[in-house]
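re: ur question from yesterday

yeah so i grabbed the chain u mentioned. its 412 aa long if i counted rite. heres the sequnce exactly as i have it in my notes:
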Amino acid sequence: MANNDVEVAIIGGGAAGIAAARQLHDAGISTLLIEARSRLGGRAWTMFAPSGEPIDLGCGWLHSADRNPWVAVAERQGRTIDKTRPPWFRNSHEDRFPLTEQEQFREAQHAFFERLEAMTANGIDRPASDALEPGNRWNGLINAIGTYISGTEWNRVSAIDAVRYADTEINWRVVEGYGVTIASHGVDLPMALETPVTRIDHSALRLRIETTKGIIKADRAIITLPSTVIAQTDGLFRPKLLQKTEAARGLPLGLNDKLFLSLAFAEEFDKDSRIFGCTDRTATATYHMRPFGRSIIECYFGGTLAHDLESQGEPAFFDFASKQLTDVLGSAFARRIKPIAMHLWGLDPFARGAYSFAEPGKADRRAMLAAPVDGRLFFAGEATSQASYSTAHGAYFSGMAAAQALLLARPR
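ran it thru and got these structure tokens back, copy pasting raw so excuse formatting
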């Protein structure tokens, strides 16, 4: 294998790995970015519809865009930043969801988040679902929103971790694709693609990184694998790092999947508007109508619903979406939509989910997962971020922090 002896190996070619590798490579450090897939980007992935339009099967929003470093990266690449207000800040389809009810829902959701913050003031962690008001008619939809935010229902989420998340509520998009922006940031880095890592042996003076294509030797490594992969890969570390494995187990990845549909006679719908499939239950998708003004619907599924549909295969997502949309818009609407593309992130062996949440009582596992080991093993990825977890910018910041810590640990 070429480049099988380097100073620093970066394991995982997603947003965190690319950010770390870019910083070290530009500092003149001998690095190798090791990625199991045939592409860079990880859970950021832009593909193209038959029309030629880019669609993001993974992350798509520049959350906290006013402090998101990927904005500057995209601008340096000459890409177009769309600052249209996101659909979740706008009114939904009024025929099925009257404005008075939408306002009641917003008030109930705001009260839920206020109670959530208040109940963590004593430092005692509880399931975030404890902040739901018993009997409130909007609990189902608030829980559905929880699955979009965390990839799981509120009863599985640490209240303290949820409150720690920091967001400026400024959300932009890259017209040409967030995934392609992230991947392009690493395009000229030394890398080994289609090279899954099976073991990281840190028993000797130098690291031995075992891959399906052979051994890579390195002085130090930055590990940016998803928490699920760390938790579920038996024998990943030699000697074992029980604290790391335990930390990762407390930070599972929730599940979110996108299904993109083509839409005929799209002009009927406002650009970047939203429709809820149902407003009285948790098992509902949300439908982003005409993103960027395109003749497309972005269907978003989360939590238990996404898991259940994945177990039935891709056609189940289209059947579910078609049923919900025709319930809202009439039976003739079924003739106007066709599936374009999706990716089942829960069944992706190199992801095994969408993005991390902390289980109740395990909010501090993020710091445990991020802590370096012996000045040679460093950890990054969205799951290691205290306040920007679940985002590509949180992954970026964590990668940069790990690279900086590694530089400081090098002999002078």
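noticed a couple things. The chain has a mean pLDDT of 96. also The first strand starts at residue 5 and ends at 11.
anyway ttyl
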